[in-house]
Design brief:
Elements (H helix, E strand, L loop, with lengths): L8 H6 L2 H29 L10 E10 L17 H11 L11 E3 L8 E12 L10 H6 L6 E8 L10 E11 L5 H9 L3 E4 L15 E11 L12 E8 L6 H13 L7 H6 L18 E8 L11 H31 L7 H14 L23 H8 L2
Parallel strand pairs: 3-9
Antiparallel strand pairs: 1-3, 1-4, 2-3, 5-8, 5-9, 6-7, 7-8
Helix pairs in contact: 5-6
């Protein structure tokens, strides 16, 4: 093949169409190889980012997340589908930490699988700016690579001895529910029995190997409509149980809420809370189920002398956060309306109620001994079988 670099202009003019086409195709084939070699040399000449050459400081991050699609907040072995794992991966990606096992590291709470948060807090050493007058924008940096259902809201430099768990003054949880036919006043009465210092061993998942004391102090328990309006009588109104305390036991909120729902259904008296908190007379937890995890929200974690830096000075950052949460709300609203439409129109596809009753009556006449299942009879909490007491579980561990 003719070498085009050795040909003059007059010689090129003498080439046939086929010869020129051959030269063009040859050059086209050479381009990818040359481009690849050029990128390789450029990459070899580029130095790797060395995070150890930058200053570090202990930073607290305030985080919001919709936990429906995650296996809880805290990282787990053999599972990377946790909120914490996603956050640490994002911090590595933007080169704020060297790896996903930072030390020191602390978290304010360990929310269960499916639970969400608006005010979760973690603390760890992050790379900082070399210019104190121009701090890094942690909110923008990290949110740019996080999944859509996790967001950093603000951050703060903290003291070297700061611990997100033990330095938290108090935490507030919210549990959302639809009113239906629940007796809200009875639930409020029962909720007030939680306020103060109590032994909550009958309102948690007992793990005597890790828990030294089951004594916890609740600062406030209230039940309000989520839209801020008076209670009214709308059975479809959304309410929230707001529980504020210094600290909580494993599954404590969901166990408390489950009992409040039994009181709301008028299956239990508000005084059942007092009975369950009386661990001297009732040292064993009655068998019961917890409330669902999805309506639970870690609403806020409060600290002293932590000055949160939020993107208030950046119109772009504020708009990004607002747009992000608006779009999430819109998506869930549409899903809820879709299911509501099915609910309102379901009667058109169900078997006619009268026809169903006639069938049952005919069945009873044909066989008087037939039993029509209407669900199990409710057994009061204080009449149910109980699990082992804390002391019995500890004794078993010590064997």
């Amino acid at each position: 093949m003719t070498d085009i670099n050795t040909l003059s202009k007059s010689q090129l003019n003498e080439l046939t169409r086929e010869q020129l086409l051959e030269i063009v195709l040859s050059l086209k084939e050479q381009q990818p190889a040359e481009e690849k070699e050029r990128k390789k040399k450029k990459k070899q000449g580029k130095k790797d980012f060395d995070i150890t050459k930058y200053p570090k400081r202990l930073v607290a991050l305030r985080i919001a997340y919709i936990g429906f699609n995650y296996q809880g907040f805290a990282s787990q072995l053999n599972c990377d589908n946790t909120v914490e794992a996603k956050i640490l991966k994002a911090l590595v990606q933007v080169k704020l930490i060297a790896d996903t096992n930072p030390s020191p590291y602390s978290r304010c709470g360990r929310t269960d699988s499916g639970v969400s948060a608006l005010g979760q807090v973690i603390a760890l050493e992050l790379r900082t700016s070399t210019d104190d007058q121009k701090p890094l924008d942690y909110v923008k940096m990290v949110n740019g690579v996080l999944p859509d259902d996790i967001r950093v809201l603000s951050w703060s430099f903290v003291d070297d001895h700061f611990d997100a768990r033990f330095d938290c003054l108090y935490r507030t949880y919210k549990y959302f529910f639809v009113r239906e036919q629940l007796n809200i006043d009875a639930m409020r009465q029962a909720g007030q029995n939680f306020v103060g210092s109590h032994d909550f061993r009958n309102f948690c998942k007992i793990n005597p190997a890790q828990v030294v004391s089951f004594l916890r102090k609740m600062l406030d328990v209230k039940i309000v409509r989520s839209d801020g309006q008076p209670d009214g009588d709308d059975p479809m109104a959304v309410f929230e149980i707001v529980i504020c305390g210094y600290s909580f036991l494993w599954h404590q909120i969901r166990c408390m809420v489950a009992v409040l729902f039994l009181v709301g259904k008028e299956l239990e008296s508000p005084d059942v809370v007092k009975d369950l908190l009386d661990v001297e007379n009732n040292p064993r937890k009655p068998q019961s189920t917890m409330a669902s995890e999805f309506p639970l929200l870690l609403h806020d974690c409060v600290f002293e002398n932590v000055k949160w830096i939020s993107p208030k000075s950046s119109v772009e950052a504020i708009h990004e956060l607002e747009t992000h949460f608006y779009n999430a709300w819109k998506l869930y609203l549409i899903k809820a309306q879709l299911v509501k439409n099915m609910l309102l129109n379901a009667k058109e596809t169900l078997i006619d109620t009268k026809a169903s009753l006639v069938t049952i009556t005919a069945l009873k006449q044909e066989n008087p001994n037939v039993i029509i299942q209407r669900g199990p009879k409710y057994i009061k909490l204080m009449d149910r079988k109980t699990g082992k007491s804390v002391e019995e579980k500890k004794a078993k561990l010590n064997k």
